[in-house]
Amino acid sequence: MDSINSILSSQKSFFSSQKTKSVSTRLVYLKALKSEIISKENAIYKAINKDFGKSEFETFISEYGLVISQLNLAIKNLKNWSKPKRVKSSILTFPSKDYIYKEPYGNVLVIAPWNYPFLLALEPLIMAVAAGNTVVLKPSELTAHTSQLITDIIENVFPKEYVTSIQGGVEVSTELLAQKWDYIFFTGSVSVGKIVAQAASKHLTPVTLELGGKSPCIIDETANLQLAAKRIVWGKFFNAGQTCIAPDYIIIKRPLKQEFITFLKDEITNFYGENPKESKDFPRIINTKNTKRIAEMLKGTNVVFGGIVDETNNYIAPTIIDEPSLQSDVMNEEIFGPILPILTYETKEDINRIITNFEKPLSLYTFSNDNKFIEYILKTYSFGGGVVNDVLIHFGNHKLPFGGVGTSGMGAYHGKHGFDTFTHNKAIIKRGNCLDPSLRYAPYKNKLNFIKKIFKYFT
Ligand code: NAD
């Protein structure tokens, strides 16, 4: 295998050759990538299923379908997105024509996690290529089948000096991070995000960090409880809870708790049957290490549903926990598995005490029909993004930027926001040589009052 050094230096030369600046070249490759992915559709379902038992349906709606839709969007809009944009000129620069030029950063590094192994590797890669960059992708070492397939797909479409996938774990990642990149896009845990930010700071490399956190789900007395339970069961146990924006825990108005738990139990059984282990729709935990980590969280808690752990098969049943303390393990870190703790509140102060116990979450969900309450929650708390009366679906609209705030991340992407992430906006003013007002030139005598008037009236 070529060394990381030699791959990066070949990508630097390729970028310098200006070939990636051609929009038609980018389109050729994006179309080739789309055909290659379409030809591998079944292989993608099989690889992800082998990695952690995810169903074809879930892989289609949360990975394959989204990747194809991002490709379609980029292919359709690329010419327009990448054109210089004319903006109104300012009286201060008159006479002029003012533009924003769309410039690729150059050599981009994308580091991907395992939980949506196809989507979270391919989507940033597509937008980085669309924006005119070269890319080195490091897919997750925990999804061996999917990462190999992604590597094959990339090798079949791109020359190495344009886009390449380098597989490996922490050592490879560390070596990649030691290089000088023009942009780093990282999706993963908060702790590794800090390592990435530190490595990037050595070269002042801009980064997007798509991280995680504890995303709350608040339910008040005006909510449609049965529908809320159904939607929350879907979003929490999708991908077996291994979703960065899954509702991590519930905060529900105290008198509603028992009825809500009954609805949750019914919906879990409706979705996955009496024994979810036998359901083809309920995935496994990614590996034994994570199964043990999640199982450990159950110790000493009041499990009111599920709680079954089969470590040898990396299975954890959809589980509900009643009122764990804020100091318990399950409330101390992002759960990232199929355990749903239910906390309760009486007053807004109770909600505040719980939410402010944690760092700013990636998502926040509010179930309510009281607009005043909804607006209060949306405006009081800082979080990456969210949904009112549902969960997860803000991920599905490419017009909305997707990203965290505080420790849940920095920067955002999806659709055109992704193209913009990998693009430097170069401010350009074009001037003619005919008019050249003398106002700005020395000597300044008798000019200050006039210039003050211009500032007052026109700025
Ligand atoms: P992770 O941070 O362990 O790994 C992510 C990537 O970083 C992998 O490619 C891995 O090889 C690499 N890596 C691991 N340790 C490293 C180190 N010490 N130095 C350099 N690189 C290293 O995360 P994960 O377990 O793959 O994913 C789970 C986490 O990702 C969760 O916290 C989840 O919330 C978060 N996540 C966030 C989003 C988002 O869009 N915000 C999406 C998915 C997952």
Written account of the structure:
Helix 2 (23-39) packs antiparallel against helix 4 and helix 9 crosses helix 10. The chain has helices at 4-16, 23-39, 41-52, 56-82, 119-130, 144-157, 170-177, 190-202, 225-237, 257-272, 288-298, 348-355, 371-380, 415-421, 448-458, and strands at residues 85-87, 97-104, 107-111, 134-138, 163-165, 183-187, 207-210, 216-219, 249-253, 303-305, 309-310, 315-316, 319-322, 339-345, 363-367, 385-388, 409-410, 423-430. The radius of gyration is 25 Å and the shape is globular. The longest helix is centred in the N-terminal third of the chain and has 27 residues, at 56-82. The chain contains 15 helices and 18 strands. The strands form 4 sheets. A 7-stranded mixed sheet has the order 10-13-14-9-8-15-16, sandwiched between helices. It folds into 2 domains: 4-211 and 410-424, Aldehyde Dehydrogenase, Chain A, domain 1; 216-403, Aldehyde Dehydrogenase, Chain A, domain 2, CATH 3.40.309.10. Helix content is 42%, strand content 17%. Strand 8, helix 9 and strand 9 (249-253) form a beta-alpha-beta unit. The mean pLDDT is 97. It is an alpha/beta fold. The protein binds nicotinamide-adenine-dinucleotide. Nicotinamide-adenine-dinucleotide binds at residues 111-115, 120, 138, 140-141, 169-170, 173-174, 177, 187-189, 192, 195, 210-212, 244, 334, 336, 362, 404, 409.
